Amino acid sequence: MSVLVVGSIALDTVKTPFEEHADLLGGSASYAAIGASFFSPVNLVGVVGTDFPAQHVEFFRSRQIDLAGLQTAEGKTFRWSGEYMLDMNVRETRSVELNVFEHFTPALPDGYRETPCVLLANIGPNLQNHVLDQMTRPKFIVADTMDLWINIARPDLLRLLPRVDLLILNDSEARLLTQQTSLIKAGAAIRALGPKYVVIKKGEHGALLFGQDQFFSCGAYPLEDIHDPTGAGDTFAGGLAGWLGAQDGPVTFDLLRHAVVFGSVLASYNVEAFSLERMRTLTMQDVDTRYADFRLMQQFELID
Amino acid sequence: MSVLVVGSIALDTVKTPFEEHADLLGGSASYAAIGASFFSPVNLVGVVGTDFPAQHVEFFRSRQIDLAGLQTAEGKTFRWSGEYMLDMNVRETRSVELNVFEHFTPALPDGYRETPCVLLANIGPNLQNHVLDQMTRPKFIVADTMDLWINIARPDLLRLLPRVDLLILNDSEARLLTQQTSLIKAGAAIRALGPKYVVIKKGEHGALLFGQDQFFSCGAYPLEDIHDPTGAGDTFAGGLAGWLGAQDGPVTFDLLRHAVVFGSVLASYNVEAFSLERMRTLTMQDVDTRYADFRLMQQFELID
Fold first, then answer.
1. Chosen from B298, B302, B303, B304 to mutate, greatest number of chain A CBs within 10 A
2. Domain boundaries, position A58
3. How many domains does chain A have?
């Protein structure tokens, strides 16, 4: 089953206390699409400028990602620059140049309108709504968002929420959206806004999945060294949606538990190197190995 | 198998944004002993003053806790008073009166020296060492500690660590003890100081268990309303040690996974009411019910 991924495609400059790299492949759709591609065929919708390196397009192709929805617009690609502090949970955005992304309107090629699984990676909720307007009865819709949209585009976001099956956001964003301190209350409050399921990402503390009277807590993989946290959340969403896309039948809470684990597996690998470098060499055997590690880390009744 | 519990016994005054209660049964040994008593026979070592209400002694007795090690000293019982903020993770100590606890020296009745499982609940590490000096080859030793001892009694604590099998402490204490920001690195660093196993408690984010090349992440039970967090960590330690005490054979990492879950179950119930009130009505059926909830919350490969 294919997954439609829409979001930003960027060229990033990332500084950590130890390294700095420029012109890296980035953007929510890049991470999400590559993450999803480990499990499902992916249709990518996004925009790049005429300066976008051919090698990045080749990387998408090498992952069997369909690029009929990738627009190339006159001008420069979206650029983002950020710096991580010694505590890698703390990030400062140094600069943002929207460039061709400023006037991006996601237009779905005809062949994409019936993609059964949709991942609305982090872009403005008006654009996320616009994508759904073009879809024909998708089976499952996942949306990611961020604090920026909660602050400046709340009405658009509130219009989106009843249209999606699963909303993914991080802990501070969940608190910002609901004004609840308790993440348990925040999860329930977000479900009341529309999504059937909610995932709250907690960084080094893992992720929480909420359904109706159902709850799943996934720990974070115990990495000692994180080289670049950029895109961890997008890769998580991509891995989650990609794995769901590969399953038959209706999406159940039990399937979602596994999807959260596979999203966590992909994200845990991605932060081991800058940009999407780790994804270039990642194998399905690596994925299976770390899935087994999550079992040992998380299950207390082990199935042999 | 019996569990020896040594620690403080106190009369607490606890204020939350919603309620205030005085003269509550408190202290690390009270919570730990009651928690352990759900799974194992308990030998309690501690001191109270002549003002200690008989009803609290009766409560210990009703839980089949052996009180041969409970000293009554001339004077007042240890008193602690604390206040929780709206974010219940934040607590301020309002006053501490050591009273009879100031000159407490834990003396083990002869019958206690061969108790196979020992829980050194939170008291000064000099006293924890003194208890171990009196023991005859216990099978498994668990110790709890706090920031105060890391700050003012580090040499005593460092002398204790190689003598214990499992150290329990919270995230900020683990960072304080090791000067590591990453809890993964902190867990490994504490093991290097002596304990074979380490549990780092993370409050609303659950707990992490570290062994040699082994790791277990336990989520926190999703409580919407917490009435009194006092003693949650002590109850966790008591439930953990009590459950371990009830198992045959050597203590393995797999047993410890379960022990962490049972400790979490007990602690999650205890915070539902002030002091130890919830423990008065708690049944083994309640424990089993919440253990099943932890399975649903935490396992992604479920055993039917």
1. B298
2. 3-298
3. 1
Q: What is the pLDDT of residues B73-95, one digit of tens each?
A: 999 999 999 999 888 888 999 99
Whether residue B56 is contained in a domain is answered as yes
Residues of B in contact with A299 (CB under 8 A): 298-301
Q: Is residue A304 part of a domain?
A: no
Interface-testing mutation among A85, A86, A208, A217, with chain B (most B C-beta atoms within 10 A): A217
Residue B129 has pLDDT above 80, yes or no: yes
Nearest residue of B to residue A255, measured between CA atoms: B300
Contact with chain B for residue A223, Cβ under 8 A: yes
Tell me the pLDDT tens digit for each residue of B138-193: 999 999 999 999 999 999 999 999 999 999 999 999 999 999 989 999 999 999 99
Q: How far apart are CA A59 and CA A71, in angstroms?
A: 16
Task: Please return the burial class of A146, using the count of CB atoms within 10 Å of its CB with bins 0-12, 13-18 and 19+.
Answer: middle
Residues from chain A contacting residue B301 (CB–CB below 8 Å): 295, 299, 303
Q: A90 touching B, CB under 8 A?
A: no
pLDDT at site A152? 97
Cα-to-chain-centroid distance, residue A73: 24
- The set of residues, in sequence order, having a beta carbon less than 8 Å from that of A133 and lying 6+ positions away, is none
Closest-CA residue to B6 (of B166, B176, B125, B136): B125
CATH number at residue A102: 3.40.1190.20
Q: How much is the average pLDDT of A193-200?
A: 98
Structure tokens at B76: 């007042």
With a threshold of 0.95, tell me whether the complex ipTM lies above it.
Answer: no
B59 CA: distance to closest CA in chain A (Å): 32
Q: Residue-wise over B45-54: b if at least 16 C-beta within 10 A, else e? A: bbbbbeebee
Secondary structure of B124-163 as H, E, C letters: CHHHHHHHHHCCCCCCEEEEECCHHHHHHCHHHHHHHHHH
Q: What percent of chain A has pLDDT over 70?
A: 99
